[in-house]
């Protein structure tokens, strides 16, 4: 299996904890298996729902098009237009959730049925001549939506590396798709959370393709974002101007932590990396009190904070057992599940509180 958020040694250790009924792993494993069993019923998804030959990913902006709805301001940050075509995005979400959850179940149980289902979903999305998605970005909405979904599919597929579910040549064909998509991503540059998610995608893609040079580039790209994105006090400069600024700040922080957790497995330390006097630990410490007491958040937040992205503090606590990080976990409770890439992080990365 491709070792992204956990490795073979971790897997063996966690399996022993689960078998012994030890927490938090036993409850987290039960939850992960519930999700995997649900994923077994996932229908194949494809961008070609729009018609034969339509292989390009394409969605409407969620916050645009309002003028056609009520004649008012056309773009409204944080307000989702109910008439926007979001079908391809919902399909990508279903894909990554199912493939990741199935991949987790496969490596924990060694039951081929989970890998067979995961590979069948990958086959439809990436490889089948009639249903594949072209491995490229398209309109302005495609980058972030694919940055937060496709890596979960990479993660789950990588966990199924050794499965017999792959037909002859399919694993290599899928790696070609992963490589082509990653090359498409290099053509776009970003400054806000898009850039953070792009760095995570590159890191996971590089691991799946066993490309250490590109993995190092992904980690350096992560570092290069810090001076522009992190304020001296620890808030994220590119996110506090949003109408749901706590949601978007934790959205960016979440993926910063995901990439840092990947680096830890490779002997790297992005958690304490200091770039121009700024770093991830500073951002974690700044936001920790506000995910516990969102009403104290000093910036605009037009909707109640509901614990979005809170699983990042499971990963942060695994790195360093600060009481502020524990308070975040206690507030929102375990097992924690990172909904975009990491999945059941209490199971794969959690430690005793």
Overall description:
Helix 8 (about 170-185) runs antiparallel to helix 9, helix 9 packs antiparallel against helix 10 (about 210-230) and helix 11 (about 245-265) packs across helix 12 (about 280-290). The longest helix has 23 residues, at about 85-110. The chain has a single domain (about 10-350), classed as Chondroitin AC/alginate lyase (Glycosyltransferase, Alpha/alpha barrel). The protein contains 15 helices and no strands. It starts with 7 loop residues before the first helix and ends with a helix. The mean pLDDT is about 95. The protein has about 350 residues and is mostly helical. About 45% of the residues are buried.
Based on the model shown, name its key terms.
15 helices, 353 residues, mainly alpha, Glycosyltransferase, 55% helix, globular
